[in-house]
Amino acid sequence: MDTIFRIFHHALYTRDGTVLGNLLSPIPPTGDPLLLQRFYKDSNVFDIQSDITQYIKAPQTSVPKEQRNAWIDIYVAYWKAIGEILRAESGNHRNDWAIKVYEAWKEVMNLVIRGYGSSAFQSWTLPVLYTAGKYLRVFAIKADDEQAAKVGNGAVKMDADGIGDDVTSGTFEKNERLEDAARVINRVFTLCISDRAPMEESRKWGLYHTTNLLFKTYFKVDLNNPMVTLNAIDLNM
User: Fold this and answer.
1) Contacts by 86-90 with C-beta closer than 8 Å and gap 24+?
2) In whole angstroms, what is the distance from residue 93 CA to residue 87 CA?
3) H or E element: which one contains 18?
4) Residue 188 and residue 192: Cα distance in Å, rounded?
5) Single pTM value for the model
6) Per-residue tens of pLDDT for the chain, all 237 residues
7) Which site from 7, 76, 137, 237 is most exposed, i.e. has the minimal number of CB atoms within 10 Å?
8) Rg for the chain, CA atoms, rounded
9) What are 28-76's pLDDT values in tens digits?
10) Nearest in space to 164 (alpha carbons), one of 30, 17, 5
């Protein structure tokens, strides 16, 4: 965990939102492919809360209490999600890996949204919101793919490229998790568009990415009725 939280505190100190967002990725950096394995193995389900708290409270960076608590909750959920992903990669989840990963990542997403909703995070950290939303959509697609494979007696494989790819083959009658993800991402859209802070400090900067993500999500949910996208997004200013 030392590596991740050393980068984390440096990103906070330098106000580098891109680095902060990249840290929350479920894909390890190309220069350190074992980073997430080490991160997960450095703790356990009994100690993770106290371990993350200790790292977040590290004295080299003064983090306000509300923000600190939000980061602790997010990184505990992130640790659990990484565990589900690693088990999926090892084949220990059998046929339900994608659903478990999606539910774990949804918890990360919800806690990120809560952090912004409580004003714990400033607008320069918006890449964190982007990363969480992007992979929520990816994992939702994989979970629906898995469900469709069960119906068709097929199999959905977790491979090195699986996380990064949000395009799957085949057409499915139901997109239960993707529709669920769309509702969560729509909350992000509302969170951004409703911010009344001065523009230079506003979450409205997050609208560009979030709107693009919503369009991609809704078009995939209902390709035969693309106007559902416009009807589903709350455009009230």
Assistant:
1) 86/36, 86/37, 86/40, 88/158, 89/158
2) 6
3) helix 17-23
4) 6
5) 0.84
6) 999 999 999 999 999 999 999 999 999 999 999 999 999 999 999 999 999 999 998 766 678 889 999 999 999 999 999 999 999 888 765 668 899 999 999 999 999 999 999 988 999 999 999 999 999 999 999 999 888 887 755 444 455 455 655 544 444 447 899 999 999 999 998 888 887 777 777 788 878 888 889 888 888 877 534 444 444 444 443
7) 237
8) 18
9) 999 999 999 999 999 999 999 999 999 998 766 678 889 999 999 999 9
10) 30
All residues at 6 or more sequence positions from 13 whose CB lies less than 8 Å from its CB, including other chains: 60, 61
Tell me the two tokens of residue 53: 């708290």
Tokens 């469900």 found at: 147
| 8 Å CB contact between 75 and 127 | no
- 13-22's contacts with Cβ under 8 Å and 24+ in sequence apart are 13/60, 13/61, 15/124, 17/124, 17/125, 17/126, 17/127, 17/128, 18/127, 20/125, 20/127, 20/128, 21/125, 21/126, 21/127, 21/128, 21/129, 21/130, 21/131, 22/127, 22/131
How many CB atoms within 10 Å of residue 64? 9
Q: Which two tokens stand for residue 41?
A: 């193995």
Give the separation between CA 160 and CA 209, rounded to whole angstroms.
25
Give the pLDDT confidence of 178-195 residue by residue, as tens digits. Answer: 999 999 999 998 888 887
Return left, alpha or beta for 170; rule: phi > 0 is left, psi -120 to 50 is alpha, else beta. Answer: left
